Amino acid sequence: MSEPVTTEQRSLAHWAEDGRAGMEAFYALAIEDYRRMVAARDWAADLRGHAVEGRVRVLDVACGSGKFPAELSRRGLAAAVEGTRVEVDLLDPSTFSLGEARGVLEAPFTVRAEHAVRIQDLPTGVGGFDVAWATHALYAVPPDEIGAGIARMVAATRPGGFGAIVHATSASHYLRFAAAFRTTFAPDSVPFTSAGQVRAALAAAGVMPTVTTMRYDVGHADPLVVEGFLQRCVFDDSVPLDRMEDEGAVGAYLDGCGDGEGYRFTQVVDVITWEAAA
């Protein structure tokens, strides 16, 4: 009997050119995640405040398609950090994602290096970053490996540096839908990692973070867009929307998300930040 495909493997399979249609459907709603997190704090101050001699080195953990730095640039980051060079190391196990992120980066960002690895596998010789962030990036890290991943992220940040993880709580659509889908359609799949598990991993790594929680809704009226969004949420395009609506825990969950015109999903997301000990 073959081993079940893990959430991490399904995620990697969807970060590919063949999955572009699903990506576009997903970001039709998920772009709101990036708008909200960019508005949540003064990221320009975080970058300026941790620059050394006019340069700040950033580790973008599980960079995906580069939506977070792209939204920062769209919101005027270049002017806000004028005079500071922002050099980014892109990290993602998907070479497709590295290419996507590289292709959308604009001023003030420049790519310094790329690492086609998982964060828990980043070589120990790579480090000294002024800033390290992971934005909606760690869900597919297996729960029994999140501690190693967080510890490596913390270790890669220089003394006095800044860390940030933006991650959905167990009350958020991402985690609630993933749990319902696992119960209904994929009982052998690995659960998503939650913000609570991220915070516990940070505590185990000796970090006492500051946490701000955001709550907002995302939605759409087009069933095809909703279907693509939901499939991408769990990296599984084998179950169409009509089955999701009719079966088990997923059907019960979706029944509570209708708004009369389409669907609206509630996100409850933690912005977790810390200053590394000097």
Q: β content, as a range?
A: 15-25%
Helix percentage:
40-55%
Strand order of the largest sheet: 3-2-1-4-5-7-6
- Number of continuous helical runs: 12
What does the oligomeric state look like here? single chain
* CATH architectural grouping: 3-Layer(aba) Sandwich
Give an overview of the whole structure.
- The chain is α/β, with parallel strands linked by helices and 278 residues long.
- It has one domain (7-169, 190-216, 268-275): Vaccinia Virus protein VP39 (Rossmann fold, 3-Layer(aba) Sandwich), CATH 3.40.50.
- Helices cover 42% and strands 23% of the residues.
- The protein contains twelve helices and seven strands.
- The chain has helices at 7-14, 20-40, 43-49, 67-74, 77-80, 95-104, 146-155, 173-185, 195-204, 223-233, 241-246, 248-255, and strands at 55-61, 85-91, 109-115, 129-135, 157-168, 210-220, 263-275.
- The chain has a seven-stranded mixed beta sheet, sandwiched between helices.
- Helix 2 crosses helix 4, helix 2 crosses helix 10 (223-233) and helix 8 packs antiparallel against helix 12.
- The N and C termini lie far apart (51 Å).
Summarize the structure.
With 278 residues, this protein is of the alpha/beta class. The protein has helices at residues 7-14, 20-40, 43-49, 67-74, 77-80, 95-104, 146-155, 173-185, 195-204, 223-233, 241-246, 248-255; strands at 55-61, 85-91, 109-115, 129-135, 157-168, 210-220, 263-275.
